[in-house]
Design brief:
Structural class: mainly beta
Number of strands: 23
Order of helices and strands: EEEEEEEEEEHEEEEEEEEEEEEE
Mean pLDDT: 77
Strand order of the largest sheet: 13-15-14-23-22-19-20
Radius of gyration: 19 Å
Helix content: under 10%
Distance between the termini: 54 Å
Length: 236
């Protein structure tokens, strides 16, 4: 603020919030900033920014935005402060991929990074839908081989897309309905994890709500997201 570099915040959690309340990971005590203003989601080497329905919104590199895939040296304006995203990691994901969120209630269409607060600037993984694949493929024993080398599928159980299969072929897959509830499924060396990204309420896994931390998915876990039920399972 006012040309002064105040502090650095390592993005060492999968979900970090920015806001005026003391409960946030990055606290900025300014009346122009909402209690919970924004969230930064970091999965592997990728981070993206979400506006949490703040009063005054977000501006990134001079452009108002609700969701933004962060790239090195991006400047986020929030109130009188600016936050600069800094990373030396090479992303394997494009900005466009994060925008390809599967909308579940509509017909289907085909070194750690950190934030530094500084002076103001002047100015979700591609989802692949398998439309014609038979529902309920044969399941296999999860212990046969490590999750890291196995393919996984989410099968839609309810709603207009019931019976459709979504193969988790990318490192990141976003699911949900923007503005209501969105989650990210991340493929990691030791398995698949689900993380809440957007929405006032958290998705359910086997009837239990997620929290702000990622949760590893097990074979045949049932997910309730944006009013749609689905099953996660490993392919043979």
């Amino acid at each position: 603020m006012d040309g002064i570099h105040i502090q650095d915040y390592p993005l060492n959690k999968e979900r970090m919030t920015v806001g005026r309340k003391a409960s946030n990971d990055i606290v900025i005590d300014n009346l122009a900033i909402s209690g919970e203003h924004a969230a930064i989601i970091t999965i592997l080497h990728d981070s993206f920014l979400e506006d949490l329905d703040s009063t005054n919104g977000l501006v990134v590199n001079g452009v108002p935005t609700k969701k933004h895939f962060l790239q090195n040296n991006d400047v986020i304006e929030i109130g009188r402060h600016a936050l600069k995203y800094v990373t030396d990691q090479v992303s394997q994901t494009s900005a466009a991929d994060f925008e390809k969120t599967m909308v579940l209630r509509e017909p289907v269409k085909t070194p750690a990074p950190h934030v530094e607060i500084t002076e103001p600037a002047a100015g979700f993984t591609q989802t692949q839908i398998i439309l014609n694949k038979p529902a309920a493929p044969a399941h296999t024993d999860q212990s046969e081989q490590p999750a890291a080398v196995r393919s996984a599928v989410v099968q839609i159980l309810t709603g207009p897309n019931a019976g459709k299969d979504l193969e988790l072929v990318k490192n990141l897959t976003t699911l949900g309905k923007p503005g209501l509830q969105v989650a990210v499924l991340a493929r990691r060396p030791h398995g698949f994890f689900i993380t809440h990204v957007e929405g006032a309420t958290f998705p359910l896994v086997n009837g239990q709500p997620l929290n702000e931390q990622p949760r590893q998915l097990n074979d045949h876990d049932l997910i309730d997201l944006a009013g749609v039920k689905m099953e996660f399972y490993f392919k043979s």
